[in-house]
Amino acid sequence: MGTSPHRIDHFLVIFFTFVVMESCISGGSYSVGVCKEEEKQALLCFKNESKIPTNWVHTTDCCSEWDGVVCDNVTGHVIELRPAPNLTVNSSQEGPQFPAWLQSQSHIGLLAISNAEIQDEIPTWFWNFSSSLGIIDVSHNQLRGEIRNALFWLPKDSMRLAVYLGSNQFSGPLPRIPVHMSELDLSNNFFSGDVSSFLCHVQNASYELSILLLGGNGLSGYIPDCWMHWPNLVVINVNENQLIGSMPNSTGLLNILESLDAHMNMLSGYFPPSLQKCTHLLKLDLGENGFTGKIPTWVGTSLSNLTILRLRSNHFFGELPPSICHLSFLHLLDLADNNFFGGIPLCFRNLSGMINIDTNKNEMPQSMIFEIFHESALATTKGKEYSLDITILKLFASLDLSSNKFSGKISIELTNLVGLRSLNLSGNNLTGNIPKEMGNMKLLESLDLSKNKFSGEIPLSFSSLSALGVLDLSYNNLSGKIPSGTQLQGFNASCYIGNNLCGLPLPKNCSVDDGQISKYENEGDDDSDEVDWFYVSMAIGFAVGFWVTCGSLFLVRSWRIAYFQFLDNKFNSILVWARVSYNHMFNVSF
Length: 590
Description:
Layout: E1 12-15, H1 37-50, E2 69-71, E3 78-81, E4 87-90, E5 110-112, E6 135-137, E7 144-146, E8 161-164, E9 169-172, E10 181-185, E11 190-194, H2 196-199, E12 211-213, E13 218-222, E14 235-237, E15 242-245, E16 259-261, E17 266-270, E18 283-285, E19 290-293, H3 299-302, E20 308-310, E21 315-318, E22 332-334, E23 339-342, E24 376-381, E25 384-389, H4 390-393, E26 398-400, E27 405-409, E28 422-424, E29 429-433, E30 446-448, E31 453-456, E32 470-472, E33 477-481, H5 486-489, E34 500-502, H6 519-522, H7 533-555, H8 557-586
Parallel strand pairs: 5-6, 6-8, 7-9, 8-10, 9-11, 10-12, 11-13, 12-14, 13-15, 14-16, 15-17, 16-18, 17-19, 18-20, 19-21, 20-22, 21-23, 22-26, 23-27, 26-28, 27-29, 28-30, 29-31, 30-32, 31-33, 33-34
Antiparallel strand pairs: 1-4, 2-3, 24-25
């Protein structure tokens, strides 16, 4: 979608107004004169009552120095007010009541009062006070009450009507909307009831809506098969509601849909087959639902533009289809907490979106009008769940396969994903050594390999992962010394428990038997099978000395007699010495 030339600050009220105040004095050319005192005071009074901020102050001339004031150059009377096109109002001045001065503005085109701390109901006059109103943004306040059909009576001559009421306290059923509305945000309120009457109200017309945000409410029931009336939708967000059932077949008619977020509902069934026709999808989030079955093979071909695929916490099973590796634009792949099994596909090396981050490919959708709406996505990293906006998503790559039944070894091909900032393979049945090539993944900020069956030592290359902020290798079969490096010694000991490791930060010191690194390992040579000649020489010397001595006595009879006579004499001498010493000690004589 296109990019607006400038961003609207949500702490400001921006409105266009064209008010003509004709003077009682006629004639004269329209230029700057000297302001009349009584008219200056009237304008200052108008400013104070309306709370419209301007540079109007009593110390300056209203004709020559006040923005938007036009005077007759002959009489000095104010003949016209021309407020600047981008006149702004500090939103902190608005709350807690809804600004009543808006009622006097008859030709406002854009109104944005977000984050203004307004704690009030929207008055009934608001919905029809300006025939040229095209943009309404009163999000992130504490506005309350029901809307019902108020939106339906908004101006019908506006070319692109956008209404943002998100993050307030509105309640009741979803309101009817005019077919010409282009963007609608009702998210994070207290709307309730089913969505059928909202989606299926118009049967003989097509809505022009491109952005529909209904997430974070209390909506329930089935999603009706009425998407054929909404062919212009680019963004659909119905997350965090209580919707049930499966995706209707008419979803496939949304052939320009780029973002579908339905996470945290109670949807069920197989992976929606109707999505095969939504070939422009960039983001698909079906996480935290009850979907089951295998990932169909067409996902990698029909949805080849996907940047975000999030299916965590469902009941999917089976091996990952090789076609998933055709999703070369993926930045975020989250399949955690399912029942997938088999090996991690070797073809993951083709996920080039996790190797080279190209911020210019597959731009995520955003509002066509002043960029009020920006796409975001949930990412679980560093043990927490974060909502990442479009700016961070362009630079962030994550792979989460945790809490499944994957088995086998980590292939070297997986370590080619050097653009990853988060990798989570925990809670599987992975075996073998941790590849030393994982040390080449220099951008990794979070690495979780816990609760698997990895063996061997921690690769020395881990010491070079300088960006690593979270590491968990606990509950494996790892052994040996934790490699030296500021990064690895700085982690909590709980990151290494459940193994046979030693060295800091663990309290267990390393010995030779514990696997302390030998000089051969320090030199990088694999000499574990080399013979230690020191011990071999000692054994040979013992054998030679023993047989030289004992063999001589056995072969030469005169030496043998002399040797044993020598031993007898020595033995008798020792007995005599012991007897004399004993008697002397106890004063006993013979």
